[in-house]
């Protein structure tokens, strides 16, 4: 069902009234602000709103698409904003996306979430928290954009934690090469996906801060809201820079993993070769004494003792030499 709110002078005065009453509220008071949250599956409601606010057909088409990149489009009577929030699934390392499309008019904000898990309630809580009073549509837009950017920031923090776990796994006493490679790929894939969402948001917030972005004669972002949008823009920059640096770290982890594998293989081959040299000594001695010719101690107990002493002495000597040279 559609959710509605009516603000007047920065205060919430009504909510959950029928969308059909929106026109009455707007006509009754020039200072009223409306928030309407639509169900994208309810085509009848959307048709009514399109006619009521004269929404552009291209914006309506984009609002119903699931794969639109974050953007801000400017039309004659309204703006169209689409953004995608994120969170990290710790089990799979994949991003969970929640997209919202928004129509922005001079006195109304219309949201159309395409997923049920978009944090609408958190957005309302921020509107009511008193940080930036809802005295303009720009203040509403700030609450929405702030939610999306904060979700990106939380996601990149979670990915950073995953990267630290990956580094611990890389230098474990018994590292799992397959697990390191798979997890590295998952983290890198999520970082690339997150960057594709965060980079356009930088353009969106930067555009919102421009003075020429107006709805009618009024700037969307007034002087009171400007510092709050600058704070959001700072968070967007930090997310994009963080994702770039983490992508480099993931690449370093993959290269380090290959280097460690090579070093481990060299160490194994060194030990195998050393043990093969040690085993070659008794093989050579027993082979020599196995000749079908007389030799010192041939046919006597002393010959067996002598060959055994030679085998043990030479083997222990090789083991001591290899350990001294760190070959074993």
UniProtKB/TrEMBL annotation:
- What SUPFAM superfamilies has UniProt attached to this entry? CorA soluble domain-like, Magnesium transport protein CorA, transmembrane region
Q: Which InterPro entries match?
A: CorA_cytoplasmic_dom, CorA_TM1_TM2, MgTranspt_CorA/ZnTranspt_ZntB
UniProtKB keywords:
Cell membrane, Membrane, Transmembrane, Transmembrane helix, Transport
Q: Which domain of life is it from?
A: Bacteria
- Subcellular location(s) of the protein: Cell membrane
The regions listed as transmembrane in this protein's record are: 272-289, 301-322
Where primarily located? membrane
Report what the protein is called: Magnesium transporter CorA family protein
Q: Which CDD domains match?
A: TmCorA-like
- Originating organism: Spongisporangium articulatum
Fetch the Gene3D superfamilies from UniProt.
Answer: CorA soluble domain-like, Magnesium transport protein CorA, transmembrane region
Membrane topology of the entry: Multi-pass membrane protein
Q: Which family does it belong to?
A: Belongs to the CorA metal ion transporter (MIT) (TC 1.A.35) family.
Q: Name one Pfam family in it.
A: CorA
